[in-house]
């Protein structure tokens, strides 16, 4: 029987720790503030933004909502970011992605001041992570590290295999595991002998975006398996990139979907906001 890594519980612990820190800061007269910008009203984005607002409320972070219409121009959006960059009472700025097609996403990410880049997507943040400097780290992979650490799973010296090389999950995940002294292999869509590489892993992090692709034949007996994927299956049930029923009996530890990596992303966003406030 694998150890089930409970992301709901661990994310609640993190949020409760942050709540205490925020209360202390408030008693010292400092209020942490996150500005969330949503362009248009994509239903999925509205749900994500709503969840972020709720988390802010729970922890005691002030959230400023900029809900601007779909037709907002790139210049107008850059103008809002510029204003928020200059506003000392705002500690974190987040633009909910994706933005409408007429807006250049890269330009928007680059416009956010690295000191307020709580999503950790700015090239300066990514560069800082690569060379071991202080900076904001992308929330989902940062959450995976917390899941491992708080479940007492050793990373140092372990064979870590990450499947996926996206800018928001796979690449920062690999850098973070390296920072924790893991021996890291990154796999992707062109990797040959994927199964053989995965079977070497003591820690296998799966971020492919393919429902239930990884079954027990990819997993070494006793390995820790972290499933970053989120999908709805043919019965509208949530599932991950890992075939949980197949992998759980061989894994030493595993994250479920839902209730594994998912809840950690917002907890780590909140953590980044508090860090931004403390750095100020
Ligand atoms: P992405 O599509 O940007 O990247 C997928 C990666 O998987 C690519 O690097 C690609 O090379 C690799 N890949 C694709 N097919 C492969 C194959 N057959 N073999 C090996 N590698 C293959 O996706 P992403 O943004 O990194 O997200 C990955 C998954 O994680 C998605 O299911 C996404 O919904 C989920 N996700 C969850 C959270 C969360 O908060 N839990 C956050 C971000 C993403």
CATH third-tier fold name of the largest domain: Rossmann fold
Radius of gyration: 19 Å
- Poorly predicted spans: none
- Helix and strand string, N-terminal first? EHEHEHEHHHEHEHEEEEHEH
Ions and ligands: nicotinamide-adenine-dinucleotide
Major sheet strand order: 1-11-8-7-5-6
End-to-end gap:
46 Å
Strand content: 15-25%
Mean pLDDT comes to 97
Task: Walk me through what this model shows.
The chain is built from ten helices and eleven strands. The chain is an alpha/beta fold. It folds into two domains: 29-113, 3-Layer(aba) Sandwich (Rossmann fold); 139-262, NAD(P)-binding Rossmann-like Domain (Rossmann fold), CATH 3.40.50. The strands form three sheets. A six-stranded parallel β-sheet has the order 1-11-8-7-5-6. The chain has a three-stranded parallel β-sheet with strand order 3-2-4, with helices on both faces. Helix 2 (43-59) packs across helix 10 and helix 6 (139-150) packs across helix 7 (170-179). The relative contact order is 0.16. The structure holds nicotinamide-adenine-dinucleotide. Residues 140, 163-166, 168-170, 187-189, 191, 194, 207-210, 228-230, 241, 261-262, 265 line the site of nicotinamide-adenine-dinucleotide (NAD). Nicotinamide-adenine-dinucleotide binds next to helix 10.
């Amino acid at each position: 029987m694998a150890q089930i890594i409970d992301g709901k519980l661990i994310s609640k612990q993190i949020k409760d720790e942050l709540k205490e820190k925020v209360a202390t800061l408030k008693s010292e007269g400092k209020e942490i503030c996150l500005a969330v910008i949503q362009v248009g009203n994509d239903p999925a984005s509205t749900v994500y933004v709503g969840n972020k607002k709720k988390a802010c409320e729970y922890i005691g972070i002030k959230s400023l909502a900029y809900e601007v219409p779909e037709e907002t121009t790139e210049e107008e959006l850059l103008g809002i970011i510029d204003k928020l960059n200059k506003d000392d009472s705002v500690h974190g700025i987040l633009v909910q992605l994706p933005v409408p097609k007429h807006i250049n996403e890269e330009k928007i990410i680059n416009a956010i001041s690295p000191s307020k880049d709580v999503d950790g997507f700015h090239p300066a943040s990514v560069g800082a992570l690569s060379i071991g400097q202080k900076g904001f780290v992308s929330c989902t992979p940062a959450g995976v590290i917390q899941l491992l650490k708080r479940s007492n799973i050793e990373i140092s010296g372990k064979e870590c295999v990450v499947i996926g090389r996206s800018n928001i999950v796979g690449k920062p995940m690999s850098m973070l595991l390296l920072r924790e002294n893991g021996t890291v292999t990154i796999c992707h869509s062109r990797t040959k002998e994927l199964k053989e590489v995965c079977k070497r892993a003591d820690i296998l992090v799966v971020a492919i975006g393919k429902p239930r692709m990884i079954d027990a034949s990819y997993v070494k007996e006793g390995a820790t398996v972290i499933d970053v994927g989120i999908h709805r299956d043919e019965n509208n049930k949530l599932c991950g990139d890992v075939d949980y029923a197949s992998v759980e009996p061989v894994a030493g530890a595993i994250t479920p979907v839902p209730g594994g990596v998912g809840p950690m992303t917002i907890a780590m966003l909140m953590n980044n906001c508090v860090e931004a406030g403390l750095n100020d």
